[in-house]
Known about the structure:
It contains 7 helices and 8 strands. It is α/β, with parallel strands linked by helices. Helix 2 (43-61) packs across helix 3.
Amino acid sequence: xxxxxxxxxxxxxxxxxxxxxxxxxxxxxxxxxxxxxxxxxxxxxxxxxxxxxxxxxxxxxxxxxxxxxxxxxxxxxxxxxxxxxxxxxxxxxxxxxxxxxxxxxxxxxxxxxxxxxxxxxxxxxxxxxxxxxxxxxxxxxxxxxxxxxxxxxxxxxxxxxxxxxxxxxxxxxxxxxxxxxxxxxxxxxxxxxxxxxxxxxxxxxxxxxxxxxxxxxxxxxxxx
Length: 224
């Protein structure tokens, strides 16, 4: 596993963004882990988060894109942080763009924030986590309406590796439905590999009991 992935897993734990226990998800599923990207609140956290996204995006898509699009609302700070980090790490200026929930009719009018998109632009969408694909259903037509724009792919922070609407994961369903690539900084499989029965700062975050709960969860909700 790449060093930045290991660091990102520890960063999620340190930030209280990735937690283990018993949680009821919006879907109604009872999960032994929970991720809340709203836990990234400081300048240092956002700077580091942007760097991890930039490394994962570069690893997946190289420099073959022009715009990072972050769907409102959580995607807005993600796109800004990752755009800044990409410039610093790889020396290429990437533009950021996000949407408003409601179009503005004065001043900087329209439905977009940040850079406008134009014909020929290549776009990477950036999100925190995707469990149902609902935000992409809303985002896809907004991007397509901007002209002859190519969506290169989607990058999320954590691939939960569980079923979406059918037998595939939400990321697999998005890839099949819209025809662009999907990726994640880390997968839950990598999280387990890095933390299972391995002490981190004096704690064991995934012990045998939690590993059994994770195995049972994926037995029921995991992708085939």
